[in-house]
Amino acid sequence: MPQFRALVQQYGDRVSFAIVVMSAKTFTAAQLQEKFNLPHIIPVVQDSALAAACGVYSTPQAVLIDRDSRLYFRGNYNRSRYCSDEKTGFARQALDGLLTGNYSLTFSPLALKAYGCQLPTCNQ
Question: Is residue 36 a part of any domain in this protein?
Answer without folding.
Answer: yes
